[in-house]
Amino acid sequence: MRGVRNRLSFVAAILLASAPALSLAQPAAGTQLSRPPNIVIIFADDLGYGDLGVYGHPLIRTPRLDRLASEGLKLTSFYASAPVCSASRYSLLTGRYAIRAGLNGALMPESKTGLGAGETTIADVLQTAGYRTGMVGKWHLGNRPGFFPTEHGFDSYFGLLYSNDMVRPWVQTDVPMRLHRGTQELPGEVDNAALTERYTEEALAFIRESKHRPFFLYLAHSMPHVPLGVSPRFAGRSANGRYGDVIEMLDWSTGQVLDALRDAGVERDTLVIFTSDNGPWMDMPPRMLVEPRIVRTDAGSAGPLRGSKGTSWEGGTRVPFLARWPGRIPAGAVSSDLARTLDMLPTIAAVAGVPLPAGRAIDGQDIRAFLEGRAPSPAEWFFYYNSGGRLEGVRDRRWKLHLTFPEKGEPVTELFDLLADPSERWNVAAEHPDIVTRLREWMRQFAVELAR
Ligand SMILES: [Ca+2]
Fold first, then answer.
1. In the structure, what pLDDT confidence band is assigned to residue 296 with cuts at 50, 70 and 90?
2. In 23-84, which ranges are continuous DSSP H helix?
3. Average pLDDT in the 366-389 region?
4. Percent of the chain residues past pLDDT 70, beyond the cut
5. Beta strands 132-137 and 156-160: pairing type?
6. What does each C-alpha distance from 403 to 416, 427, 443 come to in angstroms?
7. 57, 140, 225, 402: which one is catalytic?
8. Range list of β-strands (E), 238-332
9. Interval between CA 223 and ligand 1 midpoint (Å)
10. Range scoring the smallest mean pLDDT among 13-17, 231-235, 305-309
11. 307 — pLDDT class (breaks 50, 70, 90)
12. For residues 330 and 78, what is the distance between their CA atoms, to the nearest angstrom?
C-alpha cells in the first residue's frame, strides 16, 4: 500500500509543480525538443545514502544539492548496480550488469583488463548523435591503451584512471599515480587535496566551450573515497569533521556546475543527474592503518540502511539520486519507485532520440516517463551482487530476498519487506514461503541468463 500511496503523492506533487509552469516554453509531454538536451552526470565515489542534507544527514550541510532536489526529483529507492567501483561504473555507462563482461570488484593499477572494445557506452551513443562528450574525473575501467575514456566515446578526458588510494602507502604498487589528459600522462605527483577543485575547473571549462551544441559531461569525482582530500579553504568548516568538509566541497562543486549552466544560458536545456557509485566505505583493512592514517570517521553514512560498500545489504548499493530538468522533471518531486544506474543508458538514449545499441543485452530500462512524472517506474527488480561478483539477493517493488553465505554450509535465506523495513531488521521468510520461492526462482533464472 505504501508504494501506491507514494506514487499517488508523487503524481500529486507533479500536478502541483507543473500547473503554473505550463507555457509556450514547455513542450507537451512526450514531444521531441528541436535540439536534444545536454546531459550532465555528477558521480560521487563511495558517497552513502545518508550523506546529504536532503537525505537526512544531521550535520553535513549541502545547500546546493538540497536545492537541486527541490528543483527536480529525489529518489529514495535508487541503486548503483554494484557495491564497488569498477563494476558499478561499467553498469552506469553500458546499462549492463558487469558480470556480463566478466568484470567484478575494483581494477588495480596492474590490471590488464578494462572496458572491452565491443561495449557501447552512453558517451558512444551521444557522440554518434552529434553531442560533444567530455569526461572529468575517476574512470576506473582500465588504464591501458584500448581502455581509455577517449576510446569509449569521450571527445575529451581529464582525471585519474583509478582510485585515489591506489598508491603507496595504502596500496603496494610500483605504478605511479598520474593524472591523464586524453591518453597522455601528466607529470607530477597527484595532490589529493586539489582533486575536487581541479575537476571542477575542468568541468566548467568544458561547459563554457560546449554551450553551442548538445553536450554530455560525465563528472566523476574521486571524493569522498579515502584518502580524503579537501582544499585548504574548505578544511575545518564542517561540523562533521574531515568527511563533512569533503562532502560540503562536493556540494560547492555541484553549485559551480549549476551556476556555469545558468551562465551559459543552457540551464533549461540540461538534464542534471547527481548520484554515487556505491555506498559508504566502512571497513578498516590493515593496509589503511599506515601514515597518513585513514580513520573510521573518514567513512560516510548509509543513514537508516544496513551495511556499507562491498555488501549486498541496502547500504551497499542504495544511493542518493537527484535529477533536474526544468520544465520536464517536476520540481520538488520525491518517489520511492525503484530505479537503477542500469537505466541511465536506455533513458538517456531516449532523451537524445537515439536508438539503443543493437545486438546487446541491456539490463536497464527507459525510465524517462517516470523521471518526467508521467508514469510509475517500469523497473520491477534489482539483483544484488557482492564486491566479488557473487549474486546474493534480489528485490521486487516491495520484497527483498537476501542470502548470507557462511564459511561452511548452506546460505542463510532471509526475506525483508523493504517498504515497512528498509533497515532489513526483521526476517519474514517463514511468513511468506511463496514469495521466497518466487524470488529464489528469479535469482536462479537470472544466473542462467547471465551465464549465457
Ligand atoms: Ca566507489
1. confident
2. 63-70
3. 97
4. 92
5. parallel
6. 11, 11, 11
7. 140
8. 270-276, 321-324
9. 9
10. 13-17
11. very high
12. 18
Q: What is the dihedral sign for C-alpha 348, 349, 351, 352?
A: positive
Cα 134 to Cα 154: distance, rounded to the nearest angstrom:
5
122: exposed, middle or buried (Cβ count in 10 Å: 0-12, 13-18, 19+): buried
SS (H, E, C) 364-386: CCCCHHHHCCCCCCCCCCEEEEC
In the reported structure, the alpha carbon of residue 85 is separated from the centroid of ligand 1 by a whole-number distance in angstroms of 4
Which of 57, 85, 221, 402 is the catalytic position? 85
Quote the CA–CA distance of 236 and 128 in Å, as a whole number: 45
Angle between helices 195-210 and 241-263 (to 10 degrees): 10
212 carries an active-site annotation = no
> Could you tell me which residues come within 8 angstroms of residue 229 by beta carbon, excluding any fewer than 6 positions away?
164, 191, 192, 193, 194, 195, 196, 222, 223, 246
Mark whether 221 is an active-site residue: no
Let me know: does 263 contact 257? Beta carbons within 8 Å.
Answer: no
Q: Are strands 270-276 and 412-417 parallel, antiparallel or unpaired?
A: unpaired
Residue 276 CA, ligand 1 centroid: distance in Å: 8
390 to 105, 152, 386, 415: CA distances (angstroms) = 10, 27, 5, 18
CB proximity list for 162: less than 8 A, separation 6 or greater: 106, 107, 108, 109, 138, 139, 140, 143
pLDDT tens digits, 165-202: 999 999 999 999 999 999 999 999 999 999 999 999 99
Judging by DSSP bridges, how do beta strands 78-79 and 132-137 pair with one another? unpaired
Q: The cell 541503486 sits on which residue?
A: 79
- Cell reading at 16: 502541483
Strand partners, 40: 217, 272
User: In sequence order, what are the residues at sequence separation of 6 or more whose Cβ sits closer than 8 angstroms to the Cβ of residue 431?
Assistant: none
Which band of pLDDT confidence, cut at 50, 70 and 90, is reported for residue 104? confident
Q: How far, in Å, from the CA of 322 to the mean position of ligand 1?
A: 18
How far, in Å, from the CA of 420 to the mean position of ligand 1? 28
Segments of 104-214 assigned E as strands: 132-137, 156-160, 179-181, 184-185
Helices marked H in 213-266: 241-263
Q: Is pLDDT at 443 greater than 70 in this prediction?
A: yes
Cα 290 to middle of ligand 1, angstroms: 21
